[in-house]
Amino acid sequence: MGKTALLSRFLQAVPGFYFLASEEGTASNIRDFSHYAGEYLDDPDFERISYPDWQAVITALIRHRNFSPPSGGKVVIVIDEFPYLIARDRATPSLFQKVWDMVLSREQVMLIISGSSVSTMETDVLGCRSPLYGRRTGQWQLEPLPYPYLREFLPYDEEDLVMAWCMLGGIPAYLQMFRPDRSLWENVEDQILRKGAYLYSEAELLMQYEFREAGNYMTILRALAAGYTTQSSLCQVTGLDKGMVSKYLAVLSRMHLIKDEVPVTAHAGYRRRHYRLTDPYLTSWFRFVYPRRAETETGKSREVLSSIRDEIAPYCREMFELLCEDLVRRGILFPEASGSRLGRWWQKEVEIDLVGLDETSGSALFCECKWSTLTHRQARGILTALREKAAGVRWQNEDRNERYALVAKNIEGKEDLIREGYLVCDLQDIARLSGKYLAERKG
């Protein structure tokens, strides 16, 4: 996600040092920590001392003659991949509780603890049963880059850029794997479908890193990627019992790999939930790569690529809805119609791709997202049908300000529809608005 790069950039502007934990055990990690602490202190003798525990080495650091926080500032100590320390010694959180309470909390120090394992960080570091609970002054789960930033990595036209997002999402490490001098499909073949490539095995490695029962989680994710979105259908296709599926879905949701959806107007106790993968890379990998590993392993990547190209349109239709929701949520699309509640709406066989409701103003946004090129007649037909479907959405029906929106690849005659009061946007507009979004953030 880029957390190490972000921390390294932060340390260029503030006094402090960075330490990357390893799985080698406590003694080895303390020795390595003392090395980087000694570099910061400009004292090569610091690491030559044998420190028995974390409290000893950190106390020696704080009391060193060269440890001098700037006036009004703090010294930053970064411990990256903290979960590695916990894996080798389950007492690590309680040890650092003691270090913080007895040493660091009294000093001008900012201690940053980070880790790639979401489950360990949320349970053993941030969880209410963790010894460190209540001591943090802030927390931040780093999220993927917003869609507009993809143009900083890849010089593609907007359609290929959207498809690149559908395959990779906004994770910087993945985007850097795609070479800007190669086409989208050349990159997919070389970086995702080639045996030995980073993105060919990344999803499976992530599963094994995060989960003890990786196989069951992969079975669930494959079924979700294939379109089985309810708990009952997941039980049926995976062969796992309801209790197990419920447990796995709860863990995946807590780790932000999936989201459970209800109609945007549903009450808090609504039970007929749908589950959806939210990470584009994992979704595409489980949909296209994982089911065809046998073919790829035997050198048939060209055949696999051909089948992906044949199946990419319906996949992009699904992912385009997620992208449009994110663009609306960030205020890039239709900022004048943003709402406090945003999501899909459905009732029996009727569905609206995106509904935004604003409790304060009483405004309602109804939006359809189509991964296709639309004639003027087709666009008008979709908007007319949208009006009819919106009448079935029970929310302040007698007193609401309704706006109707359409997003597609290309929309013929969109200017006429805009003059009639519709909110209409195609890839050309998304490119323009994305450029504006980037320019505003660059100052």
UniProtKB/TrEMBL annotation:
A GO MF label: ATP binding
InterPro entries reported for this sequence: ATPase_dom (IPR011579), DUF234 (IPR004256), P-loop_NTPase (IPR027417), WH-like_DNA-bd_sf (IPR036388), WH_DNA-bd_sf (IPR036390)
Record-annotated DUF234 domain positions: 285-382
ATPase domain: residues covered: 2-177
Record-linked Pfam families: ATPase_2, DUF234
Domain of life: Archaea
Record-given protein name: ATPase
